[in-house]
Every structure is written in structure tokens, then in C-alpha cells.
């Protein structure tokens, strides 16, 4: 038997996640295929980044278990068609950790301090601001071929006009 880690996302009904019911459902599916749950941890309920099966909020359940690798596709199929599980991810793991990881909260902070656009934005639409002075561009100076610089037009007499 191999060790696996499963992370299950399920819907939060009326702001009360049903951890007990989902954990029982996960254990029933696993028992059906001979898997042995070892550890389980409830993770926080959160607002989802996008709607999943018409749900905007969800909670997570992390489960470590042992199962024969030949039975894993059947377990995945059952979780995929389950109405209680919105999403799942099952990964092989070398060993089951002595302590389960804590659910990490991420704080959204604007990039680059107070500047919402971050350090790569110049304030103009598009492009990058690499922090240095802008070098000469075509059309910025005299004699560089642009119409703003006041230089000679392209094909002037000093370049040998070939108009014929």
C-alpha cells in the first residue's frame, strides 16, 4: 500500500461547513475501495476565487490515507462524480507527517508599497518602468528622422535624393 494525501473542497451551506458529514462521506468512499484513512484535518472556510458548481464559498478537508495504487483511479472517479465534493486533489506522498500543516492565510498587499500597479508599471498604459531615465527614442530629437524633432526629412539633398 502507498501513502496518499487528499485535499477535498466542499460547499459551505449557510455559512456552516458540514465537516462531520463530509469526513464521513470521504471515509465511506475510501472504505469502499479498501483505503485506510490515517489522519484528517479540517481547514478554514473561505470565499472562493471563482464560482465552483454554483458555490461561492467552500471549506477544505485534508486527509492522509493508505491505499493500493491500483484502486486510486476508482477512488478519484467516485470523488469526481460526488455531489458533496466540489474539487479534490490526491497526491502520492513519501511519508505521512507527524504534525499536519496549518492552513495558511494569505494577506493581499499591493505590490510596490502604496503604488497599486506595482514596480513594473510606469503609470502609462502598458510597458515597463525599469526605474532609470528614458533613453532617446525615434522622433524625440533633432535629425533623427521623426516629424517632431525638426531635423531634415528622409531623402533630403545631403543624402542623395533619388527622385526621378
Number of helices: 2
CATH class of the domain at 2-92: Alpha Beta
Low-pLDDT residue spans: 106-113, 115-122
Written as H for each helix and E for each strand, in order along the chain, the element string is EEHEEHE
Main sheet?
A: 5 strands, antiparallel
The general outline is elongated
Distance between the termini: 87 Å
Q: Give the number of DSSP strands.
A: 5
CATH fold naming of the domain at 2-92:
Alpha-Beta Plaits
Looking at CATH, the homologous superfamily of the domain at 2-92 is Ribosomal protein S6/Translation elongation factor EF1B
Tell me the radius of gyration. Answer: 30 Å
CATH architecture of the domain at 2-92: 2-Layer Sandwich
Mean residue pLDDT:
76
Provide tags for this entry:
164 residues; alpha+beta; Alpha-Beta Plaits; five-stranded antiparallel β-sheet; 5 strands; 15% helix
Task: Provide a concise account of the structure shown.
With 164 residues, the protein is an alpha+beta fold.
Amino acid at each position: 500500500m502507498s501513502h496518499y494525501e487528499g485535499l477535498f473542497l466542499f460547499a459551505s451551506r449557510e455559512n456552516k461547513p458540514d465537516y462531520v458529514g463530509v469526513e464521513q462521506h470521504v471515509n465511506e468512499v475510501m472504505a469502499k475501495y479498501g483505503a485506510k484513512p490515517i489522519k484528517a484535518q479540517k481547514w478554514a472556510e473561505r470565499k472562493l476565487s471563482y464560482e465552483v458548481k454554483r458555490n461561492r464559498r467552500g471549506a477544505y478537508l485534508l486527509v492522509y490515507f493508505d491505499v493500493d495504487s491500483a484502486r486510486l483511479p476508482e477512488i478519484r472517479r467516485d470523488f469526481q462524480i460526488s455531489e458533496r465534493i466540489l474539487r479534490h486533489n490526491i497526491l502520492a506522498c513519501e511519508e505521512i507527517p507527524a504534525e499536519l500543516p496549518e492552513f495558511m492565510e494569505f494577506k493581499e498587499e499591493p505590490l510596490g508599497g502604496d503604488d497599486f500597479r506595482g514596480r513594473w508599471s510606469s503609470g502609462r498604459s502598458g510597458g515597463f518602468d525599469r526605474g532609470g531615465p528614458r533613453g532617446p527614442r525615434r522622433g524625440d530629437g533633432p535629425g533623427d528622422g521623426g516629424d517632431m524633432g525638426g531635423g531634415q526629412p528622409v531623402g533630403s539633398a545631403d543624402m542623395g535624393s533619388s527622385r526621378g
